[in-house]
Amino acid sequence: MTPYFYKFPVLTLDSVSMEFNGEIILRDISAQVLDVCRPGMEQGQVVGFYGRSGLGKSVLCRIMAGLMTPSRGTVLVGQEQEAVAPGAVGFVQQQYPLFNHRTLHDNLLLAAARKYADAAEARRQTDSYLERFQLTAHRRKYPAHLSGGQRQRAAIAQQLLCSDHLILLDEPFSGLDIAMMDEVKKIILEVTTMDELNTVVIVSHDIQTTTALCDRLWLLGYERDASGQLLPGATISPEHQYNLAEMGLAWHENVEAEPEFVRFVEHLKEEIRQSA
Ligand SMILES: Nc1ncnc2c1ncn2[C@@H]1O[C@H](COP(=O)(O)OP(=O)(O)OP(=O)(O)O)[C@@H](O)[C@H]1O
User: Fold this and answer.
1) Residue nearest to atom 12 of ligand 1 (CA)
2) Where is the ABC transporter domain positioned along the sequence (predicted)?
3) 223 shares its domain with 244
4) Where a domain ends, among 119, 135, 162?
5) Minimal-distance CA residue to ligand 1 atom 7
6) Burial environment of residue 257 by CB neighbours within 10 A (0 to 12, 13 to 18, 19 or more)
7) Residues 174, 255: one domain?
């Protein structure tokens, strides 16, 4: 196992709760993502939040992206640990927000121009990301003419071009076939190798794929009170925070086929069944 140590927090959820009209959706969620340092390697990390369908994952994503204010609690981002503001986190939503009347190239250039004041640099970065994500051949196409995988790659490139290091993916694997899934996994891993500070946060209900890619994993679920009654609002119990890097299960070639990984995913599924 590659040795590693943690340096500073890059994302902190501090007692985040969310209610809509008195209905508690999220309850007292705390989690902290630390920048991980592997000596001799320029590598960021992937962390995951798992939650069953309808449990509040998209709401949590919008809160982490600064697009929704929680009823209680705070989200802090970056090395400075500032309160999150819209645009501080690259957010790839389930409905990728590409502009349909602009070509793929122009969509990416628009994103780059938000981060790079120098127009020539914005163009250079756009071309570099098109190349890196194997989209150069499709640069003149409009979003409607791209395949699902190409749109996914474009949406990730777009968010990387305009944001700093932290990128949040809401259900990145839903509706993808096996080949496309492999492609998206490859891109996620590639993003983490671009810069040591790059952190990809996956929020998903695909437990197997999320676990295979992550260094850290948090399970969202419901807790019971002393009498066995389910408490309202999804939360993260202390026993549902996993350091996969420490367990030797951080992503490596064929991790999904290893008996320890298979046993661990079975354990997670059992935990999930019990917290619903
Ligand atoms: N603006 C809102 N007003 C009221 N209720 C809302 C609002 N947004 C979300 N909800 C409710 O919060 C709950 C969680 O919704 P959310 O979309 O976050 O679930 P999810 O876990 O992302 O589901 P899925 O995996 O099926 O996409 C749902 O019951 C939803 O109706």
Assistant:
1) 56
2) 11-247
3) yes
4) 162
5) 20
6) exposed
7) yes
